[in-house]
UniProtKB/TrEMBL annotation:
Lineage: Eukaryota, Viridiplantae, Streptophyta, Embryophyta, Tracheophyta
Swiss-Prot/TrEMBL GO biological process terms: cell wall organization
First-listed, main subcellular location of the protein, grouped into a coarse class: secreted
Alphabetized Pfam families for the sequence: PAE (PF03283)
GO cellular component: plant-type cell wall
Enzyme class: hydrolase
Keywords: Cell wall, Cell wall biogenesis/degradation, Hydrolase, Secreted, Signal
UniProt EC number: 3.1.1.-
The name this protein goes by in its record: Pectin acetylesterase
GO molecular function terms attached to this record: pectin acetylesterase activity
Length: 395
């Protein structure tokens, strides 16, 4: 099972250990969507989906940020069973509060363009980026594969709670949730009123179909299993499915060109999750030669850095279909940091020391693009040129 739970915790602990930063975040309670259960829109264990909702105010009452949480994927019954009774498979195990910071903050100083919006963080509990829809419940494991139903039920619920009057809306997410915001972008658009200005934002959701350090195909088979197990094909891009297999259509690089709704990508070209799990997963590094390097990019040997530079070039190549002739509806902030998810933490979203690209913070690039004050399509120079990165160091 691929999970980033430990990383997230480490990050929250770090933020709060540096006590002066604690005002940069605040807690929001958990709302269970019990009405979804009757629609069969449930977590892996059959429990109700859940989200954290901080209501909009002032000029933002008709603006909605709907953000989907990440946390890897489970690709088959064995791995989904392992996940079922954790917070990534059951709302019974979720923490009842969540830290809101960065793009979720309710203070203009920390989040100038979206602080008054309705801000919703949807908990991840289906294991397939909110794409699954299998009617049958496995009698042996009692596993439900219903992520796409959760997606629809959450959006319907928010429409009923006022989003049907939305002037502005953003579908966003980080990691596996960032993939949701790419794969489900046009579906979200079609669920909202035609009068709403809808855009999508993917944070660290551009997972590429790369081979491992020993040239094996790893993520491709894994994604094919995810899609098969969860019955995800129904929500994937029809234009992509006409050309290739459902498993391949789970990769943004194969379907992003077909997205009609405006979309912005934030991603590190050396995405730390992708390096750890796509490029150098444990199965391709039996001797553990990559262990130190994966934990801390400054520990990589020059040979390993060469491999990472190759990964960056592959990443940029996979992005080729995205730019769409520099259409202003498409934005991208591709920096050269060793990181994963940069919108939900204050230090990477907007602070005096946060990452810059073209002298611009992520908060400003996204705000300018959403409100059409400016276009933004930038790719950073190669590592280690960027001194503004907050590179991740794992324990
Ligand atoms: C489930 O997936 C894992 C990881 O890809 C693999 O090691 C395992 O053999 C699979 N199990 C089954 C029963 O297919
Ligand atoms: C970068 O932006 C800051 C603040 O907007 C400005 O003061 C500074 O002159 C800019 N630097 C460059 C090199 O453009």
């Amino acid at each position: 099972m691929m999970s980033e739970r430990g990383d997230r915790w480490l990050c929250i602990i770090l933020v709060c250990t540096l006590s002066l930063l604690c005002t940069e975040a605040y807690d929001v309670g958990l709302t269970f969507l019990n009405s979804a259960v009757a629609k069969g829109a449930v977590c892996l264990d059959g429990s109700a989906p859940a989200y954290h909702f901080d209501k909009g105010f002032g000029a933002g009452i008709d603006n909605w940020l709907v953000f989907f949480e990440g946390g890897g994927w489970c690709n088959n019954a064995t791995n989904c069973l392992t996940r079922r009774d954790t917070r990534l498979g059951s709302s019974k195990k979720m923490l009842t509060t969540e830290t809101f910071s960065g793009m979720f903050h309710n203070k203009a100083k920390y989040n100038p363009d979206f602080y008054e919006w309705n801000r919703i963080k949807v908990r991840y509990c289906d294991g397939a980026s909110f794409t699954g829809d299998v009617e049958a419940v496995d009698p042996k494991t009692k596993l439900y594969y219903r992520g796409a139903r959760i997606f629809r039920a959450v959006v319907d619920d928010l429409l009923a709670k006022g989003m049907k009057n939305a002037k502005n809306a953003i579908l966003a997410g980080c990691s596996a949730g960032g993939l949701t915001s790419i794969l489900q972008c046009d579906n979200f658009r079609s669920q909202l009123p035609a009068t709403t200005k809808v855009k999508c934002l993917s944070d660290a959701g551009f997972f590429i179909n790369a081979k491992t350090i020993i040239g094996q195909s790893h993520i491709e088979g894994f994604y094919a299993d995810v899609v098969r197990t969860h019955g995800s094909a129904k929500v994937l891009s029809p234009a992509c499915l006409a050309k290739m297999s459902p498993g391949l259509c789970f990769f943004p690089q194969n379907m992003v060109q077909f997205i009609k709704t405006p979309i912005f990508l934030i991603n590190a070209a050396y995405d730390s999750w992708q390096v750890k799990n796509i490029l150098a997963p444990g199965v391709s590094d039996r001797k553990g030669t990559w262990r130190e390097c994966k934990l801390d990019i400054t520990k990589c040997s020059s040979a390993q850095l060469n491999v990472l530079q190759g990964f960056r070039l592959e990443f940029l190549k996979a992005l080729n279909g995205f730019g769409n002739g520099n259409s202003p509806s498409r934005g991208m902030f591709i920096n050269s940091c060793y990181s994963h998810c940069q919108t939900g933490t204050q230090e990477t979203w907007l602070r005096n020391d946060s990452p810059l690209l073209g002298n611009t913070t992520i908060a400003k690039a996204v705000g300018d693009w959403y409100y059409e004050r400016n276009t933004f399509q930038k790719i950073d120079c190669a590592y280690p040129c960027d001194k503004t990165c907050h590179n991740r160091v794992f324990e």
